[in-house]
Each structure stands twice: as C-alpha cells, then as structure tokens.
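Contributing new complexes? Match this layout with adenosine-3',5'-cyclic-monophosphate.
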Amino acid sequence: MSDIQAALFSRFGKKIPGGTVLFQEGDRGEEMFIIQTGKVKISKRIRGVEKTLATLEKGEFFGEMAILNDKPRSATAETLEDCEMLVIDRKTFDALIRGNVEIAVRFIKRLADRLRETNDQMEALMIKDNTSRLVSILAKQVKDQKKSGDFFMTIEELAGLAGIENSQVRNILEKLASVRILELAGEKVHIATQDQVDRLLRYLEMREIFGEMA
Ligand code: CMP
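Output block (do not edit by hand):
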C-alpha cells in the first residue's frame, strides 16, 4: 500500500466480511464505495428473479448513482468475499469531484464503460435460445477477462448473467465439456487454452448459422 493509499484507508477504509448486503435496491443512498480488495456483486430483482448486473473488483466503484442523481439505490450490492473498501459520504464525494478534474474524468470514463457493457449485455440477452445466449455471454466474459491466465467463473455467476436456472446452466455446460469446449471443475467453469476459446467461438458461429441443430 502506498502512503497515499494508507492515508485514504485510515480515513475512509472499512473491512467488510463476505456475504454482507451493503444496501438493497430501493434504499436511500448516502455513501459510495471504492473496492480496495475483494469482490462485490451488483444485482437486481427482475420479475422475482435475481439477476447479476456485474461483479466488481479491486479499483472499481459503486453506489455513486444514488448520490449523483438523488434517487433510490438502483440495485443491491453484496460482498462475495471479505473486502476492504473506501466508504465515501455524499459531501466528500461532491468535494472530490468538484475539486479534482482528473478524478471527475475517471468517473465519467468508467460510467461510459459501464454503459457500453450494459449495451453489450442487452444484445446478448436478446438471444432467445438459452444455449446460444449462455455461450455468447461466456465468450464475452472470456474476451473481457481482467486477469491474464486461465479463465474461471462460477456456474452461479454465469446463470445470473444469462438469466437461466443454475441446473439448466450446468446441463448446457456438461454438454460443452463433453466436446471439450471447456472444463467443469465442481461449481466452476474453466477455460484453459486458446484452442478452447476458438472452439467456443466456432460453436457460437455454428449455432448462429444452423440454429439449435448445432
Ligand atoms: P446506486 O444506484 O447508488 O446503487 C447501486 C449501484 O450499482 C449503482 O449506484 C451503481 O454504482 C451500480 N450499478 C448499477 N447498475 C450497474 C451495472 N449495470 N453495472 C455495474 N454497476 C452497476
């Protein structure tokens, strides 16, 4: 941790255990959060079903919308593991944005990225057939993966993104594993090689051309 980070952490830092609901959709919001370590799930209930909008990690922020537009929380935030976060109140956030152009520009860029991601997600969610939708979302997650190396994702995360029951996601993934497009390790999808990524993309193309026959 640099000196600046340590100073920020001693002033605004909080350690929050995994599985904590930080706020729920519809709550009034007075604080925004910047993740230092750990992961946070942002989700929304759509027609009674919980849908994951995003999983956020180190360096990412959330909870800024309610403060910026003075509206209730647009989604629920829950820690997926033990986290360290900077928790910034409305007044401090306002002062940070107004007093530092660089910080303001970083926020705007990140919000623009988020809008782009949401548009991409919308495109994927328009795909009616569950298998193609799942494969398309999986291919995008692999492409956008933040860390280098093997790709891992839990079945639950994938099910949340695709809006499909966990058990059905497992069935689809088992079929893909049987033709070695990916591997299933317990509750995790594992994609290890570029060859598997290529197969995944080819499979998607085939389904686009031939539909459910493929
Ligand atoms: P807020 O509305 O205050 O509370 C929920 C937060 O979730 C919201 O601010 C954003 O920070 C975050 N959020 C909402 N929608 C998305 C999304 N599609 N992708 C990533 N983060 C989101």
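Reviewers usually confirm one structural detail per submission. For this one: Residues 39 and 202 are 31 Å apart (CA to CA).
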